[in-house]
Specification:
With about 100 residues, the chain is α+β, with helices and mostly antiparallel strands. The protein is built from 2 helices and 2 strands.
Length: about 100
């Protein structure tokens, strides 16, 4: 049986933990995503959260359609593209505020 757990620690020079991770159990495995926040970037904790949630959501929405290794690679690329775009959207929205 597979198990997953997450843990992180606030860096000594930071007020909040800038890392984020998530694991979800699948019928035949586990999907895990981890993002290491960029310590020098404002709101990197939010970026880590957005990236991880987007990767997991994107994976879960396409996982059932994977029938071969090429589909799997395409899905992983889509997950990271979706996360990149979600982070860009967040930074764009934050800049408007």
């Amino acid at each position: 049986m597979l198990h997953a757990f997450e843990c992180s620690k606030v860096g000594s020079k930071h007020e909040v933990c800038q890392d984020y991770s998530m694991s979800k159990r699948l019928s035949d495995g586990i999907i895990s995503a981890i993002a290491d926040g960029v310590g020098s970037a404002k709101n990197s904790d939010k970026g880590s959260y957005i990236a991880v949630n987007t990767v997991v959501d994107s994976f879960l929405s396409g996982y059932a359609k994977v029938t071969n290794v090429y589909d799997a690679v395409a899905l992983v690329k889509k997950c990271y593209t979706d996360a990149y775009n979600a982070c860009l959207l967040y930074t764009s929205d934050a800049a408007d505020e």
